[in-house]
């Protein structure tokens, strides 16, 4: 058996608390997300398991719900085999490094696949038997918000991404796809009048899900990329609906198999999305569900969409991959960060040691080319920590003159979920060059002499008890 | 690059709940679905439209 969710939870139990809610909850009546929101109000982001849930029929569900697995960068560091303390750029760098090492998946027999312990097809198949979560007030129905996977028509590559699925009936789900890789695969089936096979994967090792968010080119097999991110080959098994023609993750908690119907579109959403707003009701595709398989005591995983877990999950893959892309042309790049303030998608901070003034805009253009979500790129020097937002904004305030250090690019493909876009998915992008110019003389940062700092131990001047009694204020810390 | 709308708000004729839709549904014959009461109605049946 390969890496899986249960193994990861066991691993982290020794170092952090996994909250288990014993009181019964009704996920379809916002009770899962209400508890997460209450925790969030207290700045608490533990993984939460709801041990007693109602299913969509209102009956006790045999499956438990888990959410907030990606609520901290510390937990994601552990998922990528790093110490929990490595939450800064080493985490992003580890991700980028692993995307270079694709691993061929391994296939196991059905009897060795935990996800095949329970199989529901035909008359025994009913989504109402499961604890789907309704997240936010304007959502019209419960949603599944985990990873879907399609396979290239007549090809061998699989493509994974997070895409929302609206509950529409016992064997029916809505599916919204922005015009990216999965949409392209679906289109290739639709133009032949064929349904596109699709699976939805709920519950797996967090490295699996981090791997699904890679930004590799179209046609790269995401199962191989995911294996690289997990640092072991992904274990697969034949699906119930298509056999060996479509392989599914054997160590998942739940796999839903279905077909995206050609030429069928229905009203779907509104749905609370990653920007913190609802995406509008729109025409979206429909899935005809064919089978559900799961572990006997499966955890039904759900992401707290529109909140911190959703952001962290999307940000780490982008940081690492954009760093590698920039480094190919600006080798002195130091670090890349997608901050919470941009939902880890809309804003990017890049720090580099500039050799020429053009390096800053070059780095920004490369970042935009690799991530169509991105709207603002701020480039700072190597003495500014992009993980310290206060420092980044200080650099913007003191090193940037808007009339010569900013550029706006219009009519560029953007995320359709950005509420400020001006068309279906057209928006504008902005580069903010907050680096010290090389072409003219510039002031120098203030420093207390290092030679003096080295010989001053605070405890030799102020007793430790007094130091420990002083309140801390971290709102103006400088990293250098 | 002028700002233009890409959504419009509607009001459910049954429960009065307000929600918004992508512009592709503005003149479509596809029924909207109220997220609050599940009522299905055409855009033209909304007592209020704001765009």
In short:
The complex is a heterodimer of chains A (480) and B (51). Chain A contains 13 helices and 24 strands.
Structure report:
The complex is a heterodimer of chains A (480) and B (51). In chain A, strands 5, 6, 7, 8, 9, 10, 11, 14, 15 and 18 form a ten-stranded antiparallel β-sheet that branches. In chain A, strands 20-21-22-24-23 form a five-stranded mixed β-sheet. Chain A starts with a helix and ends in an 11-residue tail after the last helix. Chain A has 13 helices and 24 strands. Chain A is of the alpha+beta class and 480 residues long. Chain B is mostly beta strands and 51 residues long. The two termini of chain B are 18 Å apart. The model of chain B has no long low-confidence stretch (mean pLDDT 90). Chain B has one domain (7-50). The interface between A and B is medium-sized, with 20 and 22 residues.
Describe the sheet with the most strands of chain A.
10 strands, antiparallel
- SSE pattern of chain B, N- to C-terminal: EEEEE
**Which CATH class of the largest domain in chain A is shown?**
Mainly Beta
Proportion of beta-strand residues of chain B:
25-35%
Largest interface, with counts of residues having CB < 8 Å to the other chain, equals: A-B, 20 and 22 residues
Terminal-residue CA separation of chain B: 18 Å
Low-confidence stretches of chain B: none
**Please, how many domains of chain B?**
1
Number of helices of chain A: 13
What general outline of chain A do the C-alpha atoms trace? Answer: globular
Computed structural class of chain A: alpha+beta
Looking at CATH, which topology of the largest domain in chain A would you report?
A: Pnp Oxidase, Chain A
- Radius of gyration of chain B over alpha carbons? 11 Å
**Over all CA atoms, what is the radius of gyration of chain A?**
24 Å
Q: Indicate the mean pLDDT of chain B.
A: 90
Number of strands of chain A: 24
CATH architecture of the largest domain in chain A: Roll
